[in-house]
Amino acid sequence: MRKPLRCFLALDLNDALREHIDFDKSLYKDTYLKMQQTIDDKKEDRPFTQAPEKVVEKIIKALESKSPKPRYSVTTPTILLAVAKRCLPTRLLDALLVRIARA
Fold first, then answer.
1. How far apart are CA 79 and CA 21, in angstroms?
2. Is the pTM of this model over 0.90?
3. Torsions phi, psi of 12, nearest 5?
4. Residue 63 lies in a domain
5. pLDDT digits (tens, 9 = 90+) for 49-75
């Protein structure tokens, strides 16, 4: 099974979130706190995490291919969403994406 990629974007996002937003005065305090908790819970050694080298492997594959694909999926979620995009009706795909975004 493929895994999500590990990156430091979430850590940078968390720093920016804390620096620029006053949670106590915001209407979205609960949402921000949930985002911060989610970011804090993401550890490099968590299960189902892949290193950025997996992207490098796909880039090399594309560069060495005589006819590279327009897109390369690296993780299982991206593969599943690509299949869903091809197979599901628009409304069902939209509903799926909303549920994923809320999770």
1. 35
2. no
3. -65, -40
4. no
5. 667 888 899 999 999 999 999 988 887
Residue 90 in tokens: 């628009």
**Pick from 92, 56, 34, 79: nearest CA to 26:** 34
Asked if 93 and 86 count as a contact pair (C-beta separation under 8 A), the reply is no
Q: Return left, alpha or beta for 95; rule: phi > 0 is left, psi -120 to 50 is alpha, else beta.
A: alpha
Instruction: Pull the structure tokens for residue 6.
Output: 């590990």
Distance CA 99, CA 5 (A): 21
Residues near 29 by Cβ (< 8 Å), separated by ≥ 6?
A: 23
What's the token pair of residue 41? Answer: 């819970």
Q: Is residue 3 part of a domain?
A: yes
Q: Domain span at residue 18?
A: 1-51
- Asked if 63 contacts 71 with a C-beta cutoff of 8 angstroms, the reply is no
Give the chain's domain count: 1
Smallest CA-to-CA distance from 11 within 31, 46, 33, 35 is with 35
Q: Is residue 61 part of a domain?
A: no
